[in-house]
Amino acid sequence: MKAKVDAGTCTGCGVCADVCPEVFKMGDDSLSQVIVPVVPKEAEDRCRDAASQCPVTCIEITEG
């Protein structure tokens, strides 16, 4: 699984980094960033939760 954040849509609310810090962090520009190339197996459910909780739906999850 891979995650991607659309920086043009991200509002920097920080929900994703709070829900799944193994995958997301807030960057110096106050926008979310993906910090791993592939989501660790143990973080996949939290990553999906972070994507579903994003208020502007800027997180794209690619399975496989």
Can you summarize the main beta sheet? 2 strands, antiparallel
CATH class: Alpha Beta
CATH fold-level label: Alpha-Beta Plaits
Q: Could you state the order of secondary-structure elements as H and E?
A: EHEEHE
How many domain regions? Answer: 1
Q: How far from one another are the termini?
A: 5 Å
Tell me, rounded to a whole number, the average pLDDT: 97
Strand content: 15-25%
Shape: globular
CATH architecture classification name: 2-Layer Sandwich
Instruction: Estimate percent helicity.
Output: 10-25%
Structural class: alpha+beta
Low-confidence stretches: none
Number of helices: 2
- Give the total of beta strands: 4
Sheet with most strands: strand arrangement = 1-4
Concise synopsis of the structure shown:
23% of the residues lie in helices and 22% in strands. It has 64 residues and is α+β, with helices and mostly antiparallel strands. The strands form two sheets. A two-stranded antiparallel sheet has the order 1-4. A two-stranded antiparallel ribbon has the order 2-3.
